[in-house]
Amino acid sequence: MNIFSRLGEFLLMIKGMFTKPEHWRMYWKELMHQCVELGIGSLGIVSIISVFIGAVSTLQTAYQFVSPIIPRSVIAQIVRDSVILEFAPTITCIVLAGVVGSKISSELGNMRVSEQIDALEIMGINTKAFLILPKIIAALITIPLLVIIAMTLGIWGGRMIGDITGILPHEIYDRGLLDAFVPYNVTFALTKAYTFAFIITAIPAYFGYNVRGGALEIGRASTTAVVTSCIMILLADYLLAAILL
Amino acid sequence: MILVENIKKGFSNKTVIEDVSASFDAGKCNLIIGASGSGKTVLMKCLVGLLEPDAGNIIYDGVHFTQLNADQKKIMRRKIGMLFQGSALFDSMTVEQNIMFPLDMFTHQTKAEKQKRVDEVLDRVNLGEAHKKSPAELSGGMKKRVGIARAIVLNPQYLFCDEPNSGLDPQTSLVIDKLIKEITQDFNITTVVNTHDMNSVMEIGDKIIYMFQGKKEWEGSNKEIIFSKSERLNNFIFASEFLKDAKDMRMLEVKGKIQNDRDMDSLLNS
């Protein structure tokens, strides 16, 4: 199947999700379930990554700043902008593409292979709307929130490590954080977060939903889904930066 | 009654079903039998709308299913229950939640009403104690029974069973067959069963359609099948030496009872 057929199939899948729900309460329940699965379930890994990225950014930036002319507070500015513009949205979402993407792909693939999707279809349920749409909406709700948490923890991680190692006292770090702050950067980061949230749910859902075969194909679909999602995130990252900055 | 008229279905230039016409009677167990690759599963998937036939009509009690739009098909499907080969129970739900799911989705009953209905169908399939178990805790036969319970919970008019006995021991297979037969008669459902199992053919086959290489090769009842002249059907049904011997013995037994063709006809009609 060539790339255009896949793209067409993907667009038809997206179109097929928008029908009137059979039972609003069941869809709401599924949405809440997915918010917990995708959002709360990813909180731990996102927190750990963010703190370490912030901490490493502070150490490496400080290591490269050897000139006494440049004020130390600039380190905090660089950490802040790197975390807000790139690390929090992009790195977090690439990690989530692995965690959430493989989960979605293998879950739907397993449901397809074990005929659970057929069973839902036979009941008269729009399986695209019931199984895929809540995942995408849940990601659009929770992933931007995770990115905000990642930004906060990343900046906090840098502050903490600056203090612990004595490289950068927190008074200077805090002053640097407030210097030349551009609020638009947060808007840009959230725009990226929404775009990536769609990518890391819709693409794995497509690959999982269309699995044919058995366990081997589920594994292949999961790998393809994660690789494709990561490439699409990087491509979208570049395009958004080129267009919006 | 379900009528199938000149159904054709193929995949990438390979024809899987070729011009099949058949009828499935209400209140009867209608069996589709045939070797692997004969097109019986594809035929069943066309019947329930999981696959779109390339040509032909499927008519459910006067309703042209193939001509319905997607929304009308969704409504029609609520009259259909299906038991899948692997049971297709939802792994993340308990037995009770699996059966309650269609009620949650399509009815506005109170929780007590839904619970009562779940209890009824679980009792009907003799699984009164399995409410809180997860599908992973169930044996193959129990999974099939839960699958049947879920298929009938909305009181369907049509029940489809895809290889209900696959992976089951002969004794459990008989239990499942008996259950399908009883449910068909009790609720006057049009049941279509896709099977390889010769016990099922003999036990519950009110009407049997034999498929061979995508075409309908033979049609009749379990009483007629033993006297069939179709070599392909005989080779399929009585595949082993044991079954061939059993058939010969049965034929001898029958021949001993009858004197002429008229007696044979009366035996078939009895």
Question: Main attributes?
Answer:
heterodimer; A: 245 residues; mainly alpha; B: 270 residues; alpha/beta; Rossmann fold; 2 domains; four-stranded antiparallel sheet; 11 helices; 44% helix
> Which chain pair has the greatest contact?
A-B, 16 and 26 residues
End-to-end C-alpha gap of chain B: 23 Å
Element-level helix/strand string of chain B: EEEHEEHEHHHEHEHEEHHHH
Oligomerization state: heterodimer
- Total number of beta strands of chain A: 0
Element order of chain A: H for helix, E for strand = HHHHHHHH
Number of separate structural domains of chain A? 1
SSE-based structural type of chain B:
alpha/beta
User: Which superfamily, in CATH terms, is the homologous superfamily of the largest domain in chain B?
Assistant: P-loop containing nucleotide triphosphate hydrolases
CATH architecture of the largest domain in chain B: 3-Layer(aba) Sandwich
> Sheet bearing the most strands of chain A, described?
none
Strand content of chain A: under 5%
Percent of residues in beta strands of chain B: 15-25%
Distance between the termini of chain A: 36 Å
Shape of chain B: globular
Globally, the shape of chain A reads elongated
Can you tell me the CATH topology of the largest domain in chain B? Rossmann fold
Could you name the CATH class of the largest domain in chain B? Alpha Beta
Q: What is the overall pLDDT average of chain B?
A: 86
**Strand segment tally of chain B:** 10
Q: What percent of the residues of chain B sit in helical stretches (DSSP H or I)? A: 40-55%
Model description:
- The complex is a heterodimer of chains A (245) and B (270).
- With 245 residues, chain A is mainly α.
- In chain A, 84% of the residues lie in helices and 0% in strands.
- Chain A is elongated.
- Chain B has 270 residues and is of the alpha/beta class.
- Chain B has 2 domains: 2-240, Rossmann fold, CATH 3.40.50.300; 241-270, no CATH class.
- Helices cover 44% and strands 23% of the residues of chain B.
- In chain B, the strands form 2 sheets. In chain B, strands 6-7-8-3-9-10 form a 6-stranded mixed sheet, sandwiched between helices. A 4-stranded antiparallel sheet of chain B has the order 2-1-4-5, with helices on one face.
- In chain B, helix 4 crosses helix 5.
- Chain B is globular and about 60 Å long.
- Chains A and B meet through helix 4 of A and helix 2, strand 6 and helix 3 of B.
